[in-house]
């Protein structure tokens, strides 16, 4: 049985490409580690100084941005999406716009359910 | 019949294949399997997004009664520090395991580009080991929380609402199932690499495809971690 499988793409690297790739992976892993440590640190410090949860919204915005940064690096460098063709990047990234809608819609919906519960005194 | 020749970076024509994508070449300059793996991951992203958005909606619904993560996840399983409260420490260690495994996975993919068989083997082993260790940590965390009284149908003193336990076990369980699938795939990949399967094929694209799946598992954890432990 022959194992020859047709395939396309950049599946064989030269020595210089390999060195370049290894350096970018190192840079990325350091960024990911730093962002995670900062996230956990901020969460711990916040809980220590503000146990009642004042100004939580700012912490949440910071956490959301930090997570997007992490996902950006994981997809761009580790999953190599940054090196794909533009058309392929679009087919992967554009469907996520639906999620932006879904997050906004269901957050508002949850808020409305909450208001309804208060109104009807369900608690 | 249309024929296509593929130029590789080494400059010489590596293989001649007939009707690679019917039109002679892939429109995205990438292998069919890799592109389909990406599209599978997009659909899986939507599954996870549905679960996490449900979490968000229910959390807003029960805003005043929602538990604080620092209280729910305040202790370390096995109680190695004898009752010392250390919120987020154990789960940070689990996150660290996934980051390390992502690094070793991407290194395995790069060794594959160089056709370095033992380099691939060297980096797949720690990747699979980190995945298995992550699952073990999840087992410890789950049993700890269940002992505290938080299950899919009951609330513990710290969680207050039943919904928190339901969402926690469904979402982290579904993620854990993906990790388990990844560990199984990596084990198969390790055996196939050692058997020299990919040297016969002529490229290590399979390492890249399974690598994509593994990074996706890490990527989902970023959001599970965000929703349950940080927000």
Strand content of chain A: under 5%
Structural class of chain A: mainly alpha
Low-confidence stretches of chain A: none
Share of helical residues of chain A:
over 70%
What is the count of DSSP helices of chain A, taking H or I runs of 4+ residues?
Answer: 4
Radius of gyration of chain A: 22 Å
Radius of gyration of chain B, in Å, reads 22 Å
Distance between the termini of chain A: 68 Å
Principal-axes geometry of chain A comes out as: flat
pLDDT < 50 stretches of chain B: 1-18
Report on the architecture of this protein.
The complex is a heterodimer of chains A (123) and B (231). Chain A is an all-alpha fold. Chain A is built from four helices and no strands. In chain A, α1 (15-49) runs antiparallel to α2 (56-78). The longest helix of chain A is centred in the N-terminal third of the chain and has 35 residues, at 15-49. Chain A starts with 14 loop residues before the first helix and ends with a helix. In chain B, α1 (32-61) packs parallel to α7 (205-230), α3 (89-113) packs antiparallel against α4 and α3 runs antiparallel to α7. In chain B, strands 1-2 form a two-stranded antiparallel sheet. Chain B has helices at residues 32-61, 69-72, 89-113, 117-147, 162-194, 197-201, 205-230; strands at 3-7, 13-18. The N and C termini of chain B lie far apart (58 Å). The model of chain B is unreliable at 1-18 (pLDDT under 50). Chain B is mainly α. Chain B is elongated. The chains are: A mainly alpha (123), B mainly alpha (231). Chains A and B meet through α1, α2, α3 and α4 of A and β2, α1, α3, α6 and α7 of B.
Summed up:
The complex is a heterodimer of chains A (123) and B (231). By secondary structure, chain A is mostly helical.
Which key terms come to mind for this protein?
heterodimer; A: 123 residues; mainly alpha; 4 helices; flat; B: 231 residues; two-stranded antiparallel ribbon; 5% strand; disordered N terminus
Write the layout of secondary structure elements.
The complex is a heterodimer of chains A (123) and B (231).
Chain A: H1 15-49, H2 56-78, H3 86-93, H4 97-120
Helix pairs in contact in A: 1-2
Chain B: E1 3-7, E2 13-18, H1 32-61, H2 69-72, H3 89-113, H4 117-147, H5 162-194, H6 197-201, H7 205-230
Antiparallel strand pairs in B: 1-2
Helix pairs in contact in B: 1-5, 1-7, 3-4, 3-7, 4-5, 5-7
């Amino acid at each position: 049985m022959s194992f020859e499988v047709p395939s396309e793409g950049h599946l064989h690297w030269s020595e210089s490409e390999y060195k370049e790739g290894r350096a970018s992976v190192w840079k990325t892993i350091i960024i990911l580690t730093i962002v995670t440590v900062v996230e956990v640190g901020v969460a711990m410090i916040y809980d220590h100084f503000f146990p009642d949860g004042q100004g939580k919204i700012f912490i949440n915005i910071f956490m959301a941005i930090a997570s997007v940064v992490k996902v950006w690096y994981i997809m761009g460098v580790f999953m190599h999406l940054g090196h794909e063709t533009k058309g392929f990047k679009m087919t992967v990234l554009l469907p996520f716009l639906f999620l932006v809608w879904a997050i906004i819609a269901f957050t508002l919906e949850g808020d409305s359910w909450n208001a309804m519960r208060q109104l009807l005194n369900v608690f | 019949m249309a024929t296509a020749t593929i130029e590789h970076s080494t400059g010489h024509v590596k293989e001649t294949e007939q009707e690679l994508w019917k039109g002679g070449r892939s429109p995205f300059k990438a292998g069919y399997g890799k592109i389909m793996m990406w599209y599978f991951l997009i659909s899986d992203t939507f599954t996870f997004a549905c679960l996490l958005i449900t979490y968000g909606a229910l959390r807003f619904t029960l805003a005043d009664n929602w538990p604080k993560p620092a209280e729910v996840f305040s202790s370390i399983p096995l109680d190695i520090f004898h009752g010392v409260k250390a919120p987020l420490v154990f789960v940070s260690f689990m996150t660290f395991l996934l980051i390390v495994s992502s690094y070793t996975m991407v290194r395995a993919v790069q060794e594959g580009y160089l056709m370095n068989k033992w380099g691939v083997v060297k980096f797949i082993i720690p990747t699979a080991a980190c995945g298995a260790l992550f699952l073990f940590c999840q087992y410890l965390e789950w049993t700890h929380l269940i002992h505290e009284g938080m299950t899919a149908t009951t609330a513990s003193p710290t969680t207050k609402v039943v919904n928190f336990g339901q969402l926690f076990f469904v979402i982290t369980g579904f993620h854990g199932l993906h990790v388990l699938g990844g560990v199984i795939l990596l084990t198969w990949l390790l055996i196939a690499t050692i058997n020299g399967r990919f040297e016969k094929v002529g490229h290590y694209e399979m390492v890249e495809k399974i690598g994509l799946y593994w990074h996706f598992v890490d990527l989902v954890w970023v959001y599970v971690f965000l929703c349950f432990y940080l927000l």
